[in-house]
User: Fold this.
Amino acid sequence: LTGFDLPLINARGAQVFHRFTGFDLRLPSEDRRRNPHSPFLHGFVPPFKESAQRQYIEMLRQHVDVFFVQDPEMQQFMPEARVLPRGLALTDWPYVGVRPNPRPLVVHAPSNAAVKGSHFIVRALEELSREGLRFDFRLLERVPHSEAQAWYRRADIIVDQIMIGATGVLTLEAWALGKPCVTYLREDLFQPFYGTRDLPVANATPVTIKSVLARLIKDHDWRLHLARRGRETVETFH
Assistant:
């Protein structure tokens, strides 16, 4: 968090466009107040002191002409920012879809386990396995993206995150492949954004993750519905 180059850019008369990416803008105190499942409520330690973060954002406001964020979850922390949704090169992610599978493969690939809620996800799957539900599980951590992508194509269910409340990159990749995705989308933010009450995810939080996974593992028709809705959504919005 420096921005020391911005006054020099301004001095040359150039316009400045700034895109926030996540925890550079997501203020811990505000996220705890707005999001009942915030990672900050589950032990996640922010990378910056909030006082320094606020000072940095105010400094940016003095030098930046236009701010961008990727979704309405980020926009709540800076209402004047324009939403420029994440994009995905769909030619690199052809539709695969899902087929009936009596033992579905569940894949979870956390970029940051503390942020994604991986502890809750793994615990829920372990409990379901002990209770006799038949499925396979693959946890992908620190693997090359090409290897991860191969597992995504094989997956019957992809789990992204259950605490942030917004689409991640993995959500978009799952949608493009036509794989049902378990993620937490805040309905107050994303129903208006996508223009539908039928959000194309198996919406889950730390409280509901076990029941959502159980239903999705058992219900191929729901998996198929989410697969089709996900591909439609990524084609339309991303």
